[in-house]
Amino acid sequence: MTSDVADDLYDGGVVLVARDGEIGLHEAVGYSDRSTGRLAATNDVFWIFSTTKQFTNVLVLKAFEQGLLSPITKVVDVVPEFRGSDRFRVGAKDRVSVADLMTHRAGTSPTPWPLPPMECADLSRTITAIGEMDLVAPPGERVSYSPCLAHALLGEIVVRTLGKGRSFTQTLHDELLDPLGMTDTRMGAPKDWSDRLVPVVAKFPPGQFFSPQDIIDTASAAHEGAELPWVGCVSTAADLFRFAEMLRRGGELGGERILSPASIAMATTVQTGDLINERYNRIVAEKHWQPWRASIGLGFMMRGTGLRQTFFGTMSSPGTFGGYGAGSSQFFVDPERELTFVCLTAGVLGEAENLHRFQTLSDMTVAAAN
């Protein structure tokens, strides 16, 4: 990481590695803000982008456990607005299940914004806009990573089931953040944390799936008071470690049970078979990689089998699971080795560079743990 920062690949970051719950490494490297010379600190707060989705997934799993819905519940049975206002454009939306959303098989549009970014702070408006959008693929048949729509819908499903009259943000705090003691995690960046927030800087040129402006817009949209269950959280490496440790320990941490072992077993079993993740077809072709096997559990990204490109490294066990976000953040748990890895970085990389960076760091971590 020090070498990468010296080469200006990215600006800095915080890395945390633990074995069987014992932290062996928790270090800040490089800069939080290279432009001002602000050095990285272990308590830096980062926009974690799509790593947010893993928090939303856990809330959905909690709703399963309470009998409020199931993986095979149809989305329209909970959010009828998903059909849209034009009955002639419903198409296959009635077939989309909660599991389809969690495994990115719903056939929703790959757009990161169903509304202009700053208008997405209101989750109800986002859901209304999604209802007016057509599916772009048959549900359940293909995997195409959904940057926004799937987890916006899952967030609304949480509100209408587990929420029981609470907002998504309040539900997130009551059911997950507060019980785990994740005091440095918020949905939307608090204004009074400005001295700890790591600025979002794009370290890649235009022409990729996301543009540099998309990344900046995402951080701007995730402001205090915004509700973006797909991309809106800020957090620290230590807080994300607490979340990952809860998962590694079968759903419990510090005497607080968040999930049952049965839920985590279901969520960390590959549900997508041999399907490829079509969202990455372009980069696969450009880099001459093997087809990008999806390897998605019920919400969590999985290492899977075989030697191929993977964020979690080539040496981690097949059951390794975790999440990642927009060229800058990642965590994983290797249950076979009882190994937990968290890395949050300053300076958002392009997709290929980010995958190579985290694949390399993951392999180095697994090798060190052995």
Automatic annotation (TrEMBL):
Record has Cell membrane as a keyword: no
Hydrolase in keyword set: yes
Beta-lactamase-related domain location: 11-350
Keywords: Hydrolase
InterPro entries attached to this UniProt entry: Beta-lactam-related, Beta-lactam/transpept-like, Diverse_Enzym_Activities
One GO MF term attached to the UniProt entry: hydrolase activity
PANTHER family: BETA-LACTAMASE FAMILY PROTEIN (AFU_ORTHOLOGUE AFUA_5G07500), BETA-LACTAMASE-RELATED
Name used for this protein in its record: Serine hydrolase
Species of the source: Rhodococcoides trifolii
